[in-house]
Amino acid sequence: MGAFKAYDIRGVYGRDFDKDDVYKIGYFLPELLDTKKILVGRDVRESSPEIFAWFCKGAEDAGADIHDLGICTTPMVYWATAQYGFKASVMITASHNPKEYNGLKISRENALPVGFDTGLGELERWLKERVVLPRGEKGKTVAFDKKSDYMAFQKQWVNPDIDYLKIAVDCSNGMASLFVHDLLGNKPAYIFDTLDGTFPNHEANPLDPENIKDICRLVRETKVDIGVIFDGDADRVMFVDENARFISPDLMIAVLGDYFLKEKGLRGKVLQDIRTSKSVRTYVESLGGTMEMWRVGRAYAALKLREIDGVYGGELAGHYYFRDFNYSDSGLMACSLLLGIFAGFKRRGVKVSEVISSIATYANSGEVNFKLDNKQQAMEALREHFVAEEEPQAFYDFDGYRIEFKEWWFNVRPSNTEPYLRLIMEASSSALLEEKLAVAKEIIEKCRV
Questions:
Q1: Is the pTM of this model over 0.70?
Q2: Of 41, 34, 35, 115, whose CA–CA distance to 75 is shortest?
Q3: C-alpha–C-alpha distance, residues 382 and 445, integer Å
Q4: pLDDT per residue over 36-79, tens digit each?
Q5: ∠ CA(59), CA(75), CA(113), 5° rounding?
Q6: For 105, which DSSP code?
Q7: Axis-axis angle for helices 48-61, 19-32 (nearest 10)
Q8: Which residues are catalytic?
Q9: Which of 96, 113, 270, 354 could serve as a FRET partner for 26 with CA atoms 20 to 30 Å apart?
């Protein structure tokens, strides 16, 4: 079974994992997390009901009770896990992946993520090596609908000033559709805001430029101030400005500083991943915050934010983590906060594009992906070449390499979920960026041989 990943269990249902695997996951999870009570939510993918049924059957046969949240977002599962004191929870979803995919995101007490290094690896081994044996008294499944409570929590982050902002929203036919109308009202222009696990309009992955064409078109047609797009399970949110230009999600880490550091006057650490623009550090530090850099992915970021008791944090992929959300990520909460910030800027006569351009002072390549087998060889070749040319000012090696020089930096890392080597470069000028990027591409291409 190839569904066990660094952050979750995920793959094409019926190929990478099946109902027998799901049954065993349900059966062994109570033992892994030492509990007889598991919270479970699910998205609307066509395979989700079957996965839910077989997970419940396995857990019940192990003597555990299932508390069924029903159809919900992934962040709602995180919130309910901590809010109601569960020691284990599961969200059945494949997030932004195509419709044939599905999976299970597992959390432990306080909504702490269970990744491959913190439990999933052992669970995979148990599935391969252990036999399911009768456990005596069976558990049961009970309804646990907390949507109204969750909505009340989310609404506290909505700034009334957002009515001053003209907004367009693309829900990607995903789980944000459950709550976004209640959260933002009927004033925004909405598209693809009905639940449909076949994703008939576009895949629910906003990082793919193909999937933001509709929200960009809507922004131009309706002449709004900002466009919002959610991924499939609503743990991520991304934006386009009034000119229908995509905003790199890491820059929103800086924008959130206007709320937490400037408006609220909080002081403390702000978490970024290793791919984040240097512009973010410059902006956040100007507001009194302290940046902390760490690995990519919720399995690492949520744990790190809790460890450092950070105020908030974010990732290039559009995840935003909040101390006030149990150190977990929430697309809806991030959306509410950011729209409130931009509404305040609009009141002062500053457009979204102007806010972003004031932050993004470096030329950035965006994430460039290379499909190749010799990932480590390519990483070493890049490191050796550029370090030989120029002495680094900073070197990080906890998630691939991030090497910073006086006028530019790069991060190269193997994907944790896909067969790609990912490269990001940033420089003080476009000309320097193009020069360094051309050299890097040439080095990587030589490693294909």
A1: yes
A2: 41
A3: 11
A4: 999 999 999 999 999 999 999 999 999 999 999 999 999 999 99
A5: 60
A6: E
A7: 50
A8: 95
A9: 96
